[in-house]
Amino acid sequence: MLLPIKPICPAAKMRKDGTSVIFIQYCRSEHDKTLLNTEIAIPPEYWNKKRNRVTDNLPSEYGVPQKINLEVHRMYRMAEDIVKFAIRIGYTDPVSFVKNTFSPDFDLNNLGIERSKTNFKTESNEKVNLDFFFQFDQYLKSKESTVSRGTMDVLKNLKMVLEKFQDFRKKKITFSQIDLSFYEEYVHYLTYCHMQFRKKNPIRGMKVNTIGKNVKQLITFLKNRQAKKLIPTLDLSGFKIHEEDSDAIYLNAEEISKILLVDLAKDPNLELHRDLFVFGCLTGLRFSDYSKIQPEDVRDNMLYKKQGKTKHWVVVPLRTEASEIFQRSISKRNIETSNPEFNLFIKEIGKLAGLDRQIKHSYMQGNKEVFETRPKYAWITSHTCRRSFCTNEFLAGTPVELIMKISGHKSLKDFYRYIKIAPEQAGQRIREIWQQRDELLKK
After folding, report:
1. What is the pLDDT of residues 123-180, one digit of tens each?
2. Among 97, 202, 343, 347, which residue has the least CB neighbours within 10 Å?
3. If pLDDT is split at 50, 70 and 90, which confidence band does 115 have?
4. How far is CA 286 from CA 104, 290, 379, 385, 418, in A?
């Protein structure tokens, strides 16, 4: 049987180093074809297009021509066998099958695994349901006992977004169609079409960082299913996790003090949320940690807490205000609050504290920069606590490595992206350093 398969080395795909990858091209039709990466690259001028092979005068730094030709021929025959197998078992989309199956080191013995559109048999002959959302539910179950409640909420939200994406495109999501085109369509949907329903006005489209986190979790799910050999191999090399520096705010010591001094005696619920927020600002913990403080976590004015996200222990000395809040409020009252509920309450408290200075922030939506202006209290979230702690300690001169021990940042790059300093503060801080330097020189 003559199959439309051949090795090629397209000059049009030349890379920055002057080489092009040798591909195995499979064309089922003019509009239904794929390129299979052999992971071998040479300068395209040393490729004989008529004979589909490397020329004998290939420079030695790119390898031995005879060995390369043998390896390319081996992969060419392997691609043939995969396509023949797909056709023999009646696979409706042999192009996707060969694309998802082929790799330079693929073992042809694995073609004994019977595959179909909705299920296939593993090496142990166990039928596997290849429905996308069935596999996602199985993934959720496997994570229930190993990740935090916050992470589970993130994964459940990802499933909800994917279901809405499926409804929007009016086409069922299957593993066989997950490729670069799927990724681009999904990111476009997240950027411009997905509706996020808020308490007041719905928002269309996600910010760059939210999209990046969404894609990151999707990649993790797909790699997990592949590692367990539950789905065919997917090419995720084009899935990029984009991010941008956020304009999130922080509160300085004076602003935190204003919040602490708001009289909330008539509203115990608001008072508890206020105390919890200030405690977070003074300890640098994540919401998932400072919202679950227990009386036994504090000993000798030191807070001992195992971080839910990193599973690392931190020891935080409690300042006078933090210790008083713990003794007066947190240690005596059962705290039951969710992140969205907490964010609504703390915005109300910030408004009562008079944090109403207008703040202008921007973010990217696709290639368009979007600007928003709100009073400062409207920008406050549970994450403001950690950002405020890190920024205030940094401005006070606390060594960065000590701050990171509490904040849990693993790299200086991530930490410095967290720090939010106004230009005036940066200038004032440099002036103080210069004054200290001059005083040392005078001594």
Report:
1. 444 567 888 999 999 999 998 888 777 788 889 999 999 999 999 999 899 998 899 8
2. 202
3. very low
4. 44, 6, 17, 8, 13
As a residue count, the chain comes to 443
Give the residue carrying structure tokens 């210069």. Answer: 434
Which residues have CB under 8 Å from 158's CB, separation 6+? 214, 217, 218, 221
Distance of CA 282 to the CA centre of its chain: 28
CA contacts within 13 A on the Cβ side of 18: 4
CA distance 24 to 7: 4
Strands (E), 30-169: 32-42, 47-48, 53-54, 119-121, 127-129
* Tokens describing residue 356: 């109403």
DSSP string, 58-78: --GGG--HHHHHHHHHHHHHH
The CATH number of 253-439, from 2.20.25.90, 3.40.630.30, 3.30.1490.480, 1.10.443.10, is 1.10.443.10
Give dist(CA 287, CA 283) in Å, integer: 11
Tell me how far the alpha carbon of residue 122 is from its chain's centroid: 30
Cα dihedral 103, 105, 108, 111 sign = negative
Question: Residue 369 is inside which H or E element, if any?
Answer: strand 368-375
Q: State pTM to two decimals.
A: 0.54
pLDDT 10s digits, 348-392: 999 999 999 988 776 666 666 767 788 999 989 998 998 899 989
DSSP per residue, 160-182: HHHHHHHHHHTS---GGG-SHHH
How many other CB atoms are found less than 10 A from the CB of residue 113? 16
DSSP helix, strand, coil percent of the chain (3-state; round to 5)? 50, 15, 35
pLDDT value, residue 441: 66
Give Cα 296 to chain centroid, integer Å. 34
pLDDT > 70? residue 59 = yes
Q: Residue 226: which of 332, 128, 154 has the closest Cα?
A: 128
